[in-house]
Amino acid sequence: MSTGGARGEQEYISRLYGRLDELRTEARQRLDQVLATTGLGHQGLAERDVAAAELAARTARLDSVENGLCFGRLDLRGDERRYIGRIGILDHTGEFEPLLIDWRAPAARPFYVATAHSPDNVQLRRHIRTSGRTVTGVVDEEFGATAEPAGDTALLAAVNAARTGRMSDIVATIQREQDDIIRSPGTGVLVVQGAPGTGKTAVALHRAAYLLYTQRERLSRSVVLIVGPNPAFLRYIGEVLPSLGETGVLLATVGELYPGVRAMVTEPPATAELKGRAAMAEVVAAAVRDRQRVPEEGLEIEHEGALPRLDAAACRRARDLARETGLPHNQAAEVFHGLIVDALARRVADRFGTDVIDGSSLLTDADLETIRGELATAPEVASAVAALWPPLTPQRLLTDLFASPERLAAAAPAFTAAERALLLRPAHHSGWSPADVPLLDEAAELLGADERAARSAEAARQAEREEQLAFAQEALDIAYGSRATDFDDGDEAERLSAFDLVDAEELAERHAEADHRTPAERAAADRTWAFGHIVVDEAQELTAMAWRLLMRRCPARSMTIVGDIAQTGDPGGAASSWGRVLAPHVGDRWRQAELSVNYRLPAEIAAVAAGVLRRIDPARRAPRAVRATSVEPWRHAVPRGRLAAEAVELAARECARTPEGRVAVIAPEELLPALAGRSAGLPDRVDVLGVRRAKGLEFDVVIVVDPGGIESASPRGLNDLYVALTRATQRLGVVHASDGPPPPPLPDLRPLQRPGAE
Ligand SMILES: Nc1ncnc2c1ncn2[C@@H]1O[C@H](COP(=O)(O)OP(=O)(O)OP(=O)(O)O)[C@@H](O)[C@H]1O
């Protein structure tokens, strides 16, 4: 690494930061000006809010690119020089030349794809390292020269760096196969398959940033949704997009995608698996149909004396016709009500008798209409009809379904009794689980809005508005009343007061709560939001029901799906094949890209993982590791009762030998309480966790406890073991019970010398 070059670059980098500071100040001043603007009408206020939101987003973007603002330089043949960085910055003097080129712009691409074989007009590629605003070093790669490729030096420094517990961006070292995926067009469904550590998450996040750059107008309004497997994972990746200047995305688990429901309840894996099956879509549909009843004994209503009875056949006809409209349940309820009223009106007319000669009604059409109108508004009719076809919320439907063995038997006849028992729970349950969320969403689609609830919400809004109007009128009256006493010095004609400028309507609008939420916040609160693009990470974990929910949220089917079939630990989780998962939603209209280089695992750990992968699927090729560390993974056999104690002791030992970075102890769920009890004295940078929570995360050092226990804990335990063994960037140890051999290929590992003797 050259420090001479570093000194040479400092002046330019300082100039860039100077310009960044100016841009920030300008953006803040404009924001302050916009917010201070007054005297706008309703339309003007709305425009002001839009401008303010855009300026606030710009300010946030400029603030977030402080670290590593510029990380590269390209010298092209013909004396052109380009500096590459997190955002584009123009020189404000003269010709508005680019001072810094956004990494996503086409002009930056040679920085990522130029090679000695295909230099793309590049003479020199320079990696610039900074700490704060100071240049700490540069690494040059001259094309045509025989120097060590600097790209590798920069990449190796990045992959070897100690982990902080938060994922960092890879914008300075994106590799060619990753760049191809990041810049591939945003239309359609793109699946990125790759083994653990190949950079799927990194690529997916940079792709989101790239699409936001190329389609800013569309995507900043329609919002990019990033879906991860659990909140810990979302926290882990949460800083990547802001560091790339992108703050307007929504990160969520599937369990967080039903507004108004906090899915906090944990339930047995078998229940969650069952709720995730595609068959549940039919169960929910059947549960809705089951609530559209026909009384076998017919329908008898007390209204001004008993109304004529409607027999079951007439009720069934009304139900079938209402269903045939194809409307959601709550909207079809109105149709059903109308049909029952029609049938009743005809019966009432019949009671008055028919003409003995031709059998026609003795009542005129007008008479019939009067009877109909009267029945249509009769509360007794309404409540009798609602008992047959009740208005339902998704929560009500599922609560009733899961609380009743009879309802479950009717809605899920294809499930076994044992399976239905897994779904049973009391009506007064303590809340919703993540697996309930796609079911609630499914129900919401089939039920539609509860029209009556919507009407009463609209009535409440109207009442509130009238109240605001009255309040505004009162305020104006007071202002008007006080005018003579306030301004009796004769110059009131020159002064403007509230009643001169606004009427009550306008004042009420000003008092009305403006919607200052960002598009991402509005999207989070709206079940029917159509996202502009969805990124699904750890996609192999999603259930069939979760896929249905996500596809509904993305009618344009613009999606990036990243995952690894070999890491599916959840039998209800998708994927033994991406084709099978996607076929119901997009047929074969999807494309796949593959990542083939392992950036996380050193070759020594990758070899252990490859052994497990061979057991999962002998046909699958393990990715090539980008580096070796010469540190061999170890194993340590201990009596079963000592697993937790020894693991904690070894974690402490690993901490002592690795002064910075993260250490993880990954164990079967049933060992976690024992481990937690013993690990209180360990430093904060040690995590003790099960495989489920470790998915997608990485650590400098990993100790896998009781691999046999992880493997036997579930039908896909071997996949879980594979996940656990693929989390470490530097060192891996395995602690296993001495009463049996560790599962292959772990017996080949070097046995650990007694601590201290190594
Ligand atoms: N081009 C790159 N430059 C520097 N680091 C990289 C690069 N590509 C990937 N990495 C690093 O490799 C590690 C693994 O990346 P990532 O977590 O995206 O892999 P993954 O394929 O999603 O893994 P998993 O399947 O386990 O979730 C991360 O630390 C990431 O920053």
TrEMBL record:
Keyword annotations of the record: ATP-binding, Helicase, Hydrolase, Nucleotide-binding
Record-linked Gene3D superfamilies: P-loop containing nucleotide triphosphate hydrolases (3.40.50.300)
InterPro entries in the cross-refs: DNA_helicase_UvrD/REP (IPR000212), P-loop_NTPase (IPR027417), UvrD-like_ATP-bd (IPR014016), UvrD-like_helicase_C (IPR027785)
UniProt region (Disordered), positions on chain: 735-758
Ranges of compositional bias, category Low complexity: 749-758
Binding of ATP, residues: 194-201
Limits of the UvrD-like helicase ATP-binding domain: 173-602
Protein name: AAA family ATPase
Species this protein is from: Streptomyces litchfieldiae
